[in-house]
Design a protein that fits this description.
Two copies of one chain form a homodimer. With 299 residues, the first copy, chain A, is α/β, with parallel strands linked by helices. Chain A is 37% helix and 26% strand. Chain A has a single domain, classed as UDP-N-acetylmuramoyl-L-alanine:D-glutamate ligase. Chain A has eleven helices and 13 strands. A nine-stranded mixed β-sheet of chain A has the order 5-4-1-8-9-10-11-12-13, with helices on both faces. The first copy, chain A, has a four-stranded mixed β-sheet with strand order 3-2-6-7. The longest helix of chain A has 18 residues. The radius of gyration of chain A is 18 Å and the shape is globular. At the A-B interface, helix 7, strand 13, helix 9 and helix 11 of A face helix 7, strand 13, helix 9 and helix 11 of B.
Chain lengths: 299, 299
Amino acid sequence: MEIPDVVIVGSIGYDDIETIYGKKERVLGGSLSHAAFGASFFCKVGIVGVVGRDFDQQHLDLFKNRGICTKGLKIENGNTFYWCGAYDEFNNPKTLKIDLGVFQNFRPELPEEYKKVKYLFLANISPELQNHVLSQIENPEIIVLDTRARWINERRDELMDVIKKVDILTINDEEARLLFGNNLIKAGKEIIKLGLSAAIIKKGEHGSLLFMKDKIFSIPAYPIENVKDPTGAGDSFAGALIGFLSQVGFNEENMKKAIAYASVIASFNIEDFSLDNLKNLTREEIEKRYNELKEITRI
Amino acid sequence: MEIPDVVIVGSIGYDDIETIYGKKERVLGGSLSHAAFGASFFCKVGIVGVVGRDFDQQHLDLFKNRGICTKGLKIENGNTFYWCGAYDEFNNPKTLKIDLGVFQNFRPELPEEYKKVKYLFLANISPELQNHVLSQIENPEIIVLDTRARWINERRDELMDVIKKVDILTINDEEARLLFGNNLIKAGKEIIKLGLSAAIIKKGEHGSLLFMKDKIFSIPAYPIENVKDPTGAGDSFAGALIGFLSQVGFNEENMKKAIAYASVIASFNIEDFSLDNLKNLTREEIEKRYNELKEITRI
């Protein structure tokens, strides 16, 4: 009945992915997988998600080998969520095939001890499901929320309702512009006006912007020459962010450090397909890039 | 016969500009105008360019009031270069009308004392004209080069020839990708391989990347909520860069500072139409934003 440091709710799936660097079939993907791996370098993680009967034991083992608690992972009759996509040379994804499988009827239920968690990350699922998770959580300290353009377009009101209940929103630049117009500085400030403690706009290769009550920070991306597979970059980023925060607590200085660590984890994530690079990553390699990142931006 | 600290060669024109913030007619523009103003906050500037008989005395006075030497500015029979353009909400420009006027036959000739200048900025003109200027310069310490997508597309070989002769290349992200492919980190390294001391990739709202022999730095943009007119942002940036460098000399630390100052000047440039905001800018306002910029990126 150990309470994890961080609980993450999201999707787990199998991906067929094609990039200019090659093609991989049936690799482990989904927002939850990337986020859980990202967080696992910093803290004890519990995951809440669903997979089908086809889910491979080796992938369950992958989670366990990283110390990730899978008590909240349901195995249902049917197939695991499946996504087939291709990225162009500018890293823009195109969905070629999608099969929701058991994810279609996913209704996240937190194991009893997870309800007492202090740090919760709601990775990309529908605002309705995110709200359902919020109704189960007892006394959280920090809730981080992610979303996708789809929910901004199709479920704006429900999404805004969820956003107002969380502490930190992480979205990418395209989503921020969809929410509050083209100027990212204005968009970030508008998010803060909703009552959040922090908003992070993820800009991929351009790094990220952090907005707090009356401050703005800019943290660069760790420079990567070969982006083999951008899938899950934002998820591993957000996972690392909350994982680090759970160990040091929320404040301005820690947020900046957390984003720098998040950038580092995302940089490893995109250097190989799926979770291949995160699987064997060491804390030493993380610290090396973290120190380099600090140096890159020091004026 | 005083030698300026910095000589800048480029275009001067009249612009009709429309953005989502409004429309302005016949305002002072051109790469040379924005660059000269940007540099003038840091050093003694001499300009080399051409205007027509229609060029307004008040605009000559504008240069003189900022201490900019106009000895290299030719006034020819005909009209001043004219550009009419509109920006969409994403700050993408569209040329609606263009009339080269006297700029069509521009052949830059340096006044005798300018040939001894130590810091030269070749703003956007054709590679052929840039080469012609290089043939006149006697013993420069630092040459900064800018260019446009047009020359990469239409005069690649001539442009590459010029690039190899300079010390610092400043280009925007779109141009960098045109030159060396989609990955900006690779593109920057490729430029350095040509033998340059530094390459700066300007990314607008996303700040800029600095590449040196074996180092990469990332300097954020100063956050601006209301981008009234993006015209000349990159030119004022490059002008400020070389202006600052001319006072402190070229090295790694000074380059980072120079880019931070350049970002600050560009941030003022885009907050109003044409040079309206730079006209009355004080050194105190510049220093304030410079210190804020350092803070924005400190982890």
